[in-house]
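Design request, tokens follow.
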């Protein structure tokens, strides 16, 4: 029992661990709340992330440690702190092996943040393939928020490579994705970059207020929040978009961004604002103010290790000293040549070499200036080639993506077509089965109707055979013997039912409408009965009155049926023949003509019996023969009894 209890405890512990990890992964990542705070004050958000990290380490929660480290890395990327962010990312990669949740999803988040960290430092051609791989992995996991993160990294990559057209397209894609996923930070970044790129994109007509519209829309999305850090970014990009055409207005926005950055203690923001403001002052002709701002920004850039901003500060210093014709111009040329780092972007290096060439030309060193200009032109050409290669790679990636999409759509179409064909085949089979079942039901119904009809006809036939008026109570021989032995007898006959046959009296009367069937059915029975009563009163010998020739004493002839012939043989007498009838003649039904009897020949088919006036051909039916025979015997008994009664009455009236 103890072993079973221990096993159940382990099972419950595992279930609780799974549920806790599921709850953690179902909730928003910790950096979501941290990033909301980073919009206003990134340093305060960084302290919050460090607090989360310490709490997770004390609790031994590897998942919480990973997400806290990832949030710190994202904030450090925004603050452009290169040294610390690489350290934090390496720690997050170490903690990744101890996660209890979805390791594939965590790995994808880490790779995305790492790409965002590398894109500003190394925006090489390998970044395109890297980002495409991240997209495929995000689609495989079904994470649309990760797709938005990848689109944002793509935008920063194109900005770092000085590809304005591709950066514009990437910013549009990032903005649309952020709007769909309701990610405010990504939406604000995309709007800010769209505003700064509106006047730099080639091949399109930009309106004068287009950049301002994007940036104002970004400010509107803040909804009155403090968002000092985000507002400083917006003001900085606003000044960048105006620096080429309106340096005075751009200087105003740079000063606003500088004030917000100093309020937050954002040294990277202060250095960027000072550098851009010094460039704007140099464009306006205020070389002294530009020199002062550039000298203030240079130590900050050197402290951060941002080689791009350092090169920009040296370029501004060279331009200001060249305009002022200062004595320190030579020393600054040497410092600027030292700042020419191979890790710089080609466009930034070309800009720095242009400043060096101008300074050398101001000192009269035209040969060196010419060489620097050639180097600058070469770097510009390389930059253009690299941009073309980048564009080609992006187009190739888009083509591959479109091809895969087309193949997927084709496979989906084929699958849907196959499903529709299968459904149609199943519907056809169901229709055939339904038709077959309906035909079977109809056939079964027809068989049931026929069976009930046959049963009903059999019941009617049996009912007719059970009727006492159609069947004598005694055998025919006994009835005839009793009728002839008694001196007087009375027989009752129903003239209506006397001629009822298998088809009924009504159908028999209808059949009697033909000439050859004049004495069948109820009408024939009534006629024969009336004829018998008419002949019963004729005079004859005592004790035996003459019975009508059509009834009594008939010999068996060709047209006598097998039922009536025995009765004729038993009750027949030469005196009972009607007058004028030759001996051995029989009365035939057709035309009442007498013919000579030929022994040994049966009644002809289609001829009527002289006694019962029924068709001999119909007597072949087994169930009907008994009914008609009974009717014939009843007729014979009735007329003989009637003759006996008349004779008795005659004797009673005779005088003694």
């Amino acid at each position: 029992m103890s072993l079973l209890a221990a096993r159940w405890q382990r099972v419950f512990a595992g279930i609780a661990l799974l549920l806790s990890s599921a709850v953690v992964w179902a909730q928003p990542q910790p950096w979501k709340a941290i990033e909301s705070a980073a919009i206003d004050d990134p340093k305060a958000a960084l302290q919050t992330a460090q607090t989360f990290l310490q709490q997770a380490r004390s609790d031994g929660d590897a998942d919480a440690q990973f997400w806290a480290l990832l949030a710190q890395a994202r904030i450090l990327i925004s603050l452009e702190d290169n040294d610390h962010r690489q350290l934090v990312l390496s720690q997050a990669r170490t903690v990744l092996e101890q996660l209890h949740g979805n390791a594939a999803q965590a790995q994808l988040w880490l790779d995305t943040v790492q790409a965002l960290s590398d894109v500003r430092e190394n925006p090489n051609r390998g970044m395109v393939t890297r980002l495409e791989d991240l997209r495929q992995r995000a689609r495989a996991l079904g994470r649309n928020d990760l797709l938005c993160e990848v689109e944002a990294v793509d935008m920063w990559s194109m900005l770092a490579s000085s590809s304005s057209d591709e950066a514009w397209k990437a910013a549009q894609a990032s903005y649309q994705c952020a709007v769909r996923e309701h990610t405010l930070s990504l939406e604000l970044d995309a709007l800010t970059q769209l505003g700064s790129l509106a006047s730099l994109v080639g091949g399109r007509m930009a309106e004068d207020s287009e950049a301002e519209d994007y940036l104002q829309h970004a400010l509107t999305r803040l909804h009155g929040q403090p968002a000092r850090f985000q507002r400083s970014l917006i003001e900085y990009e606003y000044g960048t978009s105006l620096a080429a055409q309106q340096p005075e207005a751009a200087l105003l926005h740079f000063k606003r961004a500088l004030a917000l950055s100093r309020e937050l203690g954002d040294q990277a923001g202060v250095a960027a604002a000072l550098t851009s403001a010094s460039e704007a002052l140099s464009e306006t002709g205020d070389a002294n103010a530009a020199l002062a701002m550039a000298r203030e920004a240079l130590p900050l850039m050197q402290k951060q290790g941002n080689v791009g901003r350092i090169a920009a500060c040296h370029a501004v210093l060279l331009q200001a000293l060249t305009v002022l014709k200062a004595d320190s111009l030579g020393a600054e040329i040497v410092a600027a040549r030292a700042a020419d780092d191979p890790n710089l972007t080609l466009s930034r290096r070309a800009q720095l070499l242009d400043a060096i060439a101008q300074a050398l030309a101001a000192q009269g060193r035209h040969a060196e200036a010419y060489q620097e200009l050639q180097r600058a032109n070469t770097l510009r050409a390389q930059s253009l080639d690299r941009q073309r290669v980048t564009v080609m790679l992006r187009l190739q990636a888009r083509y591959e993506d479109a091809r895969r999409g087309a193949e997927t759509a084709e496979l989906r179409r084929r699958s849907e077509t196959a499903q529709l064909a299968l459904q149609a085949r199943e519907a056809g089979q169901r229709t055939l089965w339904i038709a077959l079942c309906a035909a079977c039901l109809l056939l079964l119904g027809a068989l049931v109707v026929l069976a009930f009809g046959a049963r009903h006809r059999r019941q009617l036939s049996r009912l007719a055979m059970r009727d006492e008026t159609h069947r004598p109570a005694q055998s025919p021989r006994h009835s005839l013997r009793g009728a002839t032995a008694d001196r007087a007898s009375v027989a009752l006959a129903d003239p209506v039912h006397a001629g009822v046959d298998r088809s009924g009296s009504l159908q028999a009367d209808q059949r009697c409408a033909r000439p050859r069937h004049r004495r069948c059915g109820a009408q024939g029975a009534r006629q024969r009965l009336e004829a018998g009563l008419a002949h019963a009163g004729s005079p004859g010998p005592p004790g035996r009155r003459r019975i009508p020739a059509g009834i009594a004493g008939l010999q068996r002839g060709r047209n006598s049926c097998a039922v009536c012939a025995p009765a004729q043989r038993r009750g027949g007498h030469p005196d009972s023949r009607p007058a004028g009838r030759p001996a051995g003649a029989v009365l035939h039904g057709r035309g009442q003509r007498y013919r000579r009897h030929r022994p040994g020949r049966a009644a002809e088919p289609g001829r009527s019996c002289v006694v019962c006036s029924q068709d001999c051909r119909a007597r072949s039916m087994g169930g009907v023969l008994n009914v008609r025979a009974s009717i014939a015997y009843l007729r014979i008994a009735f007329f003989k009894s009637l003759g006996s009664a008349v004779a008795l009455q005659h004797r009673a009236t005779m005088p003694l």
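Comment from the thread starter after seeing the answer: thanks! The mean pLDDT is 72.
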